[in-house]
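At this stage, I wrote out one protein's amino acid sequence and its backbone structure tokens, and that material follows here:
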Amino acid sequence: MDSATPELTRRASVLGPGAVLGLVSGIVHAIGWVITYWWVLALVAVAVWAASEALVRRLARKASAERMALELVPSWHFDPGLEEIFRRGVQLARASTSMPWWAPRRSKTVQVRLRADGSSPLRYRIEGPAGGERLLSITPFGPGVTVNRARPLVDKPRDHVVRAEFILRGKPTAPLREVPLNPDPLQPLIDAVSDLRAELGDLAEIRLDIQRAPKWALRARRLQLMSNARRAERREAQRAARWVRQDATGIEDSLTWQLQQLVAGKQSGGGRRLVMPPVPRRVDPEEALGKLAEDDHLVRVQLLVMCASNTEGRAQARLAQLQAALDVFGGGSRWAMRGWRVGPWRFGADRWPSQRGFERRWNLGHCQPPRANWVRLDELTGLLKPPTMHCRLPLLASDLPTFEHGNPELLLQGIYRGPDGRRRLVATHAKETLFEVGVGKAGGGKTERALAQAIGWAHAGGGLMFVDPHRDSWPRALPFLAHDHQMPRIALIDLNANGPAPQLSCWNPIGMHQGQAAHEVVEATADAYASVLGWDDATAPRALTILTAALAVLVTVNEAACQAGRPEDQATVFHVRSLLTDADFRTAALSAVKGHLDEETRSWWRTVFPALPVDAFAVVLNPIARLASNPVSRAFLGQPAGVYNIREAMDARMIVWVCPGGNGPTDRLITALLARDLLRAVRSRRDTPEDRRAPFRPYFDELITLTGAAPETIAAMFEDFRKYKVHVHGMTQLLARLPQPVRLSLVQNASTLASTAGSQSAVSSITAEWGDRPSPDVVAALDRFEHYMSMTVQGRRVGPVRITGPHLDEVFAEYARPGQAAALERAARDRAGAAPLHQLTDRADNQLARVSNFLAQHASATPPDIHLQKKGYK
């Protein structure tokens, strides 16, 4: 100060008094003019600001027009690690700067859009500069995420819209809470939008803009924080000093202190004690700046939320749910809605003057974050990735269609209970539901669900075959199928022979009156016997050869009878015994068909058969003898021209109920014959163009019983039937008890896997296919009629999800016609050609004579050229 005074004096002496007065006067006049015409300067400043803002907005709008969008679709096993998510965040931050040099800062951003409108649980999109597309298209998530180029989204106007902008509140340098990846950090947000209803126009969308901030802005923020910290420390030191002085003064003025001085004989000095005030401590930059202390991976963010609906109140409620979901990320700082509340009104992004700016940023993708919205990339871990495998996604109508009665394109699966408690019937697309497997304990609801599905398919006009060895399903389904327009389509093949006057249908496995190919009939019948008896080329080659040769002759005889217009004179499987043991019958049969048999078969009968020992036929004749000793099987299989024709039933979309009658040796043989005939009939559809093949659905209840009779046949069904539009549904209590070929084919080709409750060891084979999510103990504890299911919808797997099995009395209550059940039973038996058991038995007993009579009339006049007489047989 002392050195500056002489300099001023020297300048004043040089300028002179007049010049100094003139300078002072000019300054005073300038100040006066500014005070008088301040509005001019204000207008100029406003004009300059408006012009610059208009230019910036124009450039930002132009830059925003060159943006691109990518949609990320995660797979069901998507499970990224922290490092992969962090690398994705680095990519997003880097891509935000891929803009032209002239682009304003507000347009240099990458936007994460989380959107739910009822069409999907949560769509995850990335929007950013077109120059960053190559960088953003290749993600560190690998094959767990599919990246698709996305089209712009256009929303229809909704009646009610609410908007909100969220800013970071709390300590500005404190981080958000570190949220674990399991469960998924997005789970609260998905739960908040899980009850969206597309039919009500519900929409919820969250947009997170990520922007790399300029260095000057970060330095300015740090200076502000350091300045605030130092001021706070000085204030704290001053406050402490005041308290120290007050404490010292209070002690010296106290009576206790004065008495201590008198007792000690000390005299107080000329003044009070000198009190040293505390010195402000040094501010630690790392403590004051917190997460802003380092430059690496620090970004600014803008979080905008919009909810809409056509129903009043739903949008506001949705916004409150999303606000609560964002509270999960709260720690030292938290996401809070920007604005202020005055009584019942809230002033924020939804009201003037903030609404216009919100709409501009929302529509153009501009990022103008609040000053406090600084975060590190690791704080945004939960928002930098799509939903993972640890996230429970709700099932919407777009994921799993809603079942519609009478719709042939949908197949009923069960009842899904949504997060909001609403229940809806869900279905899969019929053309995608190729094979189904249901596992669970007895009484758990497997058969009830299959019946509901079959009845729904039947009322939609579809054809089906329900095979139930125990017959319990038929009386259960009877009232719901008893409709006048359904009765002509339903046939009942019941081998239980219950009641005082039992009636049976009939079938000739080797009958040729239905136009089958002879070699296919022979192969199907022989394979059925071999499957039940465990024959193969290694263990029973001679038995297979004898049976095949005998069937070839009988089938040729039946062809001749049908060509002669006498199908009632056809042979049956019981005539194998006559062919092998009765020389006269054998001679007549071979004489009648010698011109129709192939050379190899004729050579076998001419050279091999006479050399066979007598006991070679026992292994072939024993199972036939068992069939013949049972009046039911003899009546069912002993008719020359049976009515049962599964190929015709498939093509005519009929409903066929088959009840084999049990699981004994005889029943297993009949089941094997039926199964092999079904396989033959389905494969014969190769003669029909694919677009003309009517879809058909066989339902196999009690697969353990059925596969015990024909394991290879059932396995072949799950492998081949898809090609012919025949889709098998199987149910079993224990998957492990099925033969290995059947089990492997079931699991490999199943479009739907379902499990009810059961022991953990029993259901573990199914949960293993789901990656033990849910675990076996969760599935084992299910209530009755509850299922965990995985389904195929639009080519992708859905689930496993918990589904309540449909109950017939609830789902199809309007279809119940108990008063017409008896009429339907009579019509179903008539459609299957059922006749009294005694009548069929008499006809079977007399059939050998009819066949012999036919052979006698058509035998060649020339004696056979082969010697067929065998010692021991007449």
